[in-house]
Amino acid sequence: GKVRASIGPGPIHDRPAVLIGGPHPTNYHHWLLEILSRFWVFYEYEEYRYCPLILPPRVHPFQSESLHRFLRETPSSMIEHSGEFPSRFKRLVFPTFLANGGHSRRQLEFLRAHLMGHPALGSPERVYISREDSRNGRRLGNEGALVERLEKLGFVKVLLSTLPQAQQVGLFARAKIIVGVQGAGMVNHIFAPEEANVIELHPRSYTNRAHFFTTNALDQTYQFVICDEDLMGTLIAPIERVIRCVERGA
């Protein structure tokens, strides 16, 4: 089983430890792409597979659920830290990304190989990712009108925060068109087929190119739509423009 070390000063260990870290580990997008993808080191270097594994604390169910997929193949003891390390090591290994500049097909295929199972029967081909329960803003003020149009085109609205991580992965396994406001949940497109078309809605004041890079790495199609914002930061999607993107990608 896995061992969580107690917090406090400890002896200096001769054997190396492996530090798996990155910014914003409690964010679903960053957890997948910047934390879990570093587990490649255990598959490339057999000598590290039994070394202590140092991880950031887990505060969300998706972290434990997805981490289990990797830990069952990695017989390491596990240490969780929150900025202070409970032990000292003469040698600390910090794996890099499997990419130059942040993302690569090798990195994404590594995650797909370890997190994807068999596609869920009945999973939709057209998915709209809602942020109606988001605590971090970027909600759509006219989401009801947009969803009404999208549902007529065969889309299924989903709230990813209500789904276990494995179920999120299965939901996108057959997705051909994915629509949603820029956010962590959009990273699930990496589990969709190569021919998938991703349509991302951005606020006019802020754009993020992360999913542009990951869709291109997987030979998926990427389109984006700029949304206006009101004084409270609520987005207003140009519905006809979104529909044209759907028709273009169909």
SS element count, helices: 8
What profile does the largest beta sheet have?
6 strands, mixed
Percentage of residues assigned to helices: 25-40%
Question: Could you name the ranges where pLDDT drops below 50 across 5 or more consecutive residues?
Answer: 1-7
H/E element sequence: EEHHEHEEEHEHEHEEHEEH
**Mean residue pLDDT:** 86
Tertiary shape? elongated
Q: Assign the structural class, choosing from mainly alpha, mainly beta, alpha/beta, alpha+beta, or little secondary structure.
A: alpha/beta
**Rg, Å, rounded:** 20 Å
- What is the oligomer described by this structure? single chain
Distance between the termini: 48 Å
Strand order of the largest sheet: 8-7-9-10-11-12
Beta strands, count: 12
**Which strand-content bin applies to the residues?**
15-25%
Layout of secondary structure:
Blueprint: E1 12-13, E2 17-19, H1 28-35, H2 40-44, E3 53-55, H3 61-71, E4 78-80, E5 88-89, E6 92-93, H4 105-115, E7 126-129, H5 143-152, E8 156-158, H6 165-171, E9 177-181, E10 197-203, H7 210-217, E11 221-229, E12 235-236, H8 239-249
Parallel strand pairs: 1-5, 2-3, 2-6, 3-4, 7-8, 7-9, 9-10, 10-11
Antiparallel strand pairs: 11-12
Q: Explain this structure to me?
A:
The protein is an alpha/beta fold. The protein contains eight helices and twelve strands. The strands form three sheets. The protein has a six-stranded mixed beta sheet. Strands 4-3-2-6 form a four-stranded parallel beta sheet, with no helix packed on it. Strands 1-5 form a two-stranded parallel ribbon. A hairpin with a 5-residue loop joins strand 11 (221-229) and strand 12. The chain is elongated.
